[in-house]
Description:
single chain, 311 residues, alpha/beta, UDP-galactose 4-epimerase, domain 1, 2 domains, two-stranded parallel sheet, 9 helices, 13 strands, 18% strand
Amino acid sequence: MKVLLAGGSGFIGSHLAEELVKREYEVTVLDNLSSGLRDNLKSIRDKITFIRGDVTEFKTVEQFDYVINFASNASRKEWERYPVEIALTNSLGSRNLIEIALKSKALYIYASSSEVYGDPTVIPTPEDYKGAVSTTGSRSAYDEGKRFGDALTKAYEREHGLKNIIIRFFNTYGPRMRGDDFYGRVVDRFVKQAIKGEPLTIYGDGSQTRSFTYVSDAVKAITLLMEKGETGAVYNVGSDHEIEILELAKLIKKTLSSNSDFNFMPLPEHDPKRRAADISKIRKLGYVPKVDLETGIKNMGYYIKNTEVKK
Ligand code: UDP
């Protein structure tokens, strides 16, 4: 089976590429390396086709069984700095990949996000929650980009019969996540700060919540949906275990035996107050997340000590 995986050099994308190669899919990765890294694919370099290119311009006559769209910068700092690129990747880039999927009669899988729900009033949030999102706020290029990506997928389904599955990822963490000062994703950033003995940078009073999924569980969910997901359906992939950011910081300190202090900083604009996924829909397909937060933090600590901090 042939897969076109856009954004396959990124954090989740590269873990998915490895799993697909293991399952003997023929994988073509398309990535412009705007936030993904070539190194993320080093273990499968000789087993895949890598194309450096942008989803908004990519052309091909090749046929695929799956077109998977993970292309898009996804961190707060990126959507503040590159909002135009992010909005266009999810609109023009989505159109381009959908057209390729249609020509191949492929299953189009769109990596959407819990950001489409904005700052939700229903927790845990189910797939049919309509969202509380600012169309003009600092997160809007990403939030509305993903909402448009969802809408375009459904438009092509209605008008052209596009086979599709939309996956809404909640906060996912694990090795290769980029949490340095520019990217700033919370688990990676706190783990690095804890290892270096630097203060953990808590935004606001740390009472905002998130729910975290280890990347191997996210990949398991994606392959499950590729094989058993209902065509035309939307699935949350995340966790229903909600934790306050301050509690997360304390857990990371304890798990990694760190003496770091806390440094409380201003809360960024439109930071969602609570976030947890209702995953009953994917659970019905047999999905059971395996890696608890403590184990995931330990794994990340090990990975970071042995790679990035060493450099
Ligand atoms: N956060 C924090 N300190 C940091 C980075 C993030 O307190 O150094 C908080 C952030 O305000 C948010 C949560 O952690 O409430 C998750 O942030 P992240 O950027 O990882 O993901 P998102 O906001 O997209 O859920």
